[in-house]
């Protein structure tokens, strides 16, 4: 007998690696169930896997989503398509969770401002890079104080095999949206609002490298020991939902602070270990939708 509480019925737009991993997570959730997976005409493998998990599938795009009886829609398509998806769903009252780097909606990172998921109807997960580095930058901003970050640089590296066609087409949007999120969520600590740079690398190396992110900031007065302790506490919080998240180094050299993050996918055979970029954004998306479901129930 299923004793799970009544939760939210979900639809997933996108049947690639990102979308199908989302379906697995939704099906395992106590608060969510997957009612529909929508893919393109070239998504046969993904849609077959979704059907094997008991989900209805369709290649009819937003017509199928709009006709479905769902409470939450996860958009794992692409940044160019997301605004039209939002417009199609605007009058329905569903929770729209955006996993594309389209910069629409409330930008949310679970351990930074996850409470926004309780009341917002349109959540932006920013990017996998944003999910990886914003917990670090929140700590750095708190340590360094208002208007003290002279420069912020973020460099992410993902294995080519973990990045699908839609994500490759969205690299410009990925960079722009991640940069915007860093500026917005750390603006009180930035000395000048435009001193943020984001770079993204796709590595074809074999064996495929685990997803990693490097953060460099120019700021004075950091206490290295206290900073390392708080960074580890932030990493522990992220690991409550993305278990492969690690702060692997923190170096303070005068006014230059460098922090390195690594994210390993630990979803068993579902994702390869190097696909931490997929793991962190999907784990965050499902967690935030669950938080919305719990808030709606209480």
- What are the segments in which pLDDT stays under 50 over at least 5 consecutive residues? none
- The number of distinct β-strands equals 12
What's the story with the biggest beta sheet? 7 strands, parallel
What's the CATH first level of the largest domain?
A: Alpha Beta
Based on CA inertia axes, which overall geometry fits?
A: globular
Using the coordinates shown, work out and report the CATH topology of the largest domain.
Answer: Dihydrodipicolinate Reductase, domain 2
Physical arrangement of strands within the biggest beta sheet? 3-2-1-4-5-7-6
CATH superfamily of the largest domain: Dihydrodipicolinate Reductase, domain 2
Mean pLDDT, all residues: 93
Instruction: Provide a count of the helices.
Output: 10
Measured by DSSP, the beta-strand proportion falls in: 15-25%
Radius of gyration (Å): 19 Å
H/E order of the elements? EHEHEHEHEEHEHEHHEEHEEH
Q: Which helices and strands, and how do they pair?
A:
Layout: E1 8-13, H1 17-28, E2 32-38, H2 44-52, E3 56-58, H3 62-67, E4 72-75, H4 82-89, E5 95-98, E6 106-107, H5 110-113, E7 122-124, H6 128-144, E8 151-159, H7 165-169, H8 171-185, E9 196-203, E10 211-218, H9 224-238, E11 245-253, E12 256-263, H10 276-297
Parallel strand pairs: 1-2, 1-4, 2-3, 4-5, 5-7, 6-7, 8-9
Antiparallel strand pairs: 8-10, 10-12, 11-12
